[in-house]
Amino acid sequence: MTMLSSAPGGASVRGPVTPPPSASVTKRRTQGGVILAVPALAWYLVFMVGPLVAIFVIAALHWPGMLQPVSFAGTGNISAVLDDPVFWDAVQNTAVQLVVAVPLMIVGAYMLGYYVAQKPPGHRVLRYLLFIPGLISTPAKAMVFYAVLSPDGLLNGALDKVGLGSMTDAWLASPSTALGSLILLDVWSGIGFTAVLFAARLGSVPDEIGEAAQLDGAGHWRAMWRIHFPVIRDFVGVVTMLQFLWTLFGSAQNVLLLTQGGPGSSSTTLSFLVYQKAFIAADLGYSQTVGVVLFLVGLAGLLTIRRVFRQNY
Amino acid sequence: MSGCSTLASADSDPGTLVVHTQLGTTAPGSPTYTAAVKDFEKENPGLRVKNLVNGDDLPQVYETSRLARKEPDVVMVNLYDKTLAWTDVGATVDVKDYLDDWGLRDRVLPAALTEWTDDEGRIRAFPYFAANWPVAFNTHLLDRAGVGAIPTTGDQLIGAARKLRAKGIAPVTVGGNDWTGQKLLAQIIQTFLTPEEARQVYTTGDFSGSRGARAGIDYFVTLRDAGVFADKAQGLTSDSMTTQYNTEAAAIQSAMSSALAKVPAKTAGHTEIGGWPLAPGAAHEKPTILRSFTLIGFWISPNGVRKLSSVEKFVRFMYRPDIVSRFITESGRDMALVTDTVSKDFPLVAEAQQLGDRVGQALLPDLYVPPTATQPLITATSTAFTRGTSAASVRSALESAYRTA
Lengths: 313, 405
Prior knowledge:
The complex is a heterodimer. Chain A is mainly alpha-helical. Chain A contains 12 helices and 4 strands; from the N terminus they run E-E-H-E-E-H-H-H-H-H-H-H-H-H-H-H. Chain A starts with a strand and ends in a 5-residue tail after the last helix. At the A-B interface, helix 11 of A face helix 3 and helix 18 of B.
């Protein structure tokens, strides 16, 4: 640090000074940093950017199966996708899934998280209970839902027992209930986990803020939405983004395990369509064209959510 | 990934024959296969068989390993869906010359050889398993409902369904949400189709353009809406189907021989085997069943050609009459090979084998449906089994499965 001191005789002299690093030293350091970053950069390019580019390349190919000859398709796959009613069914189902599941999960999880953050009696146990769906593997969750929702499953059995036999249905195989059943599974498996995340973040909000609001006469509802929510708004945005992406890209596994996209295409989502066309129908070009659509939808969704939940104070 | 590394390590070992198989877990015939492999190793010291077991995903896994040129030497899988293209794309080799050189041609049933031969005269694999796919009727439940004889016409079937329902018994149980439903639907659609017409319809997917296919779908819809199929059949699977029949909750099922082998002795004791009832004006004279000779066969991979002497020993061993008989007597399998052995412990399988000319035969569409339409057709099946779906909507659902084919 540079400092001034008075020397005898009143002359002002500079104390010991650390000379600034020379330009050549700075350059050497920068070069060293770049060299160290090269492996990570190469890894990123090969394993992150590479597959992304590959999606766009494959989308322009006619590739009817992994062992089949490949040819250039131009915009053929785009026309095939846009002309296919199944694709539009998948778009509609995905939109319904996002519009219903994500808000339901975020609002429900936030309220649940707020309740847990108030540290009610037994809140520690409650945190573990909320986390349980996150500890169950996806196939196990699907098995549970299949046992409940199959034609001879627990739900129909219970409805029969209470005299509501006329309400029984093939929940996973009925066009009107298959998608709803999948959304229910999404919400059930995601809400507790998300609530724990919110509770953790709300726990770090200073108590004084809540206490001041109570002194001013604000009830829990008002404190939850008008006091705490604005404070963690950006965090809610991050969690919403994650749930949006999980729902958009990860729905294929539940569809595959429970409905195979049926009956007809009533529960086919975009991510399942990518899987189905690539691995079952052996049409890789079509599959990756839908993959490109998914990528663009995901990107647009991310930017929108980021903008909506931007911290505004 | 671990599978690939396993393949990689086994591939270079000349003393190890790598077999990719669907037998080895719960598939009917697995215990017999496992025991047979042990016997093979005892008879051939220095030659080890390494089994890689997969279920329905076997073709996908095999194709991935083939891409890396690390494929197993022998593959045991059905001729169906993706595997239809394997000989064409060089994923497996034509076995015609091997069949002759090894003197095994006479061991194979002529119908099986025909089904395994492609348009260019190549034999895709060594045929092994076959299947009869008749209809099983629980006579005890039919009697209880007051149904005197096994229904052989659509009207009789509808009448029987009404009587069974009145007694709280499900009439025909079927996995309307999976391949069992798809096969039964295909069988009923063929009521008014000759084999040639059926081949054309299932190759092109033009269900509206064929008068016979339209009539067959109308017949299916009539049966469905008359309550012939179990409630919510569109949500049932093959497991639910066998459970309902085996526990006598349902009176009738269309079941392939491997399912018949699992019917418990008590239920089997009052089960009669027959064909699917026909409508007036049908293209068949007798109630129909499905038959297939294209279940698990022995495919040879390009890597297998490099170990041909080991592959020859293995296939010769599995083709031996005593080994073939074991699959029939121990596991109740139908074989695509010449044999006099009849199963005693699996009476329904034996009964199905002896149906002969008492039934007609519908075409199993597996060989003609384009691979890209196979799964969508199964998905469309549950739409067809949903009550209230019109015949036009069923045709539309089936045709949409072919849209990208």
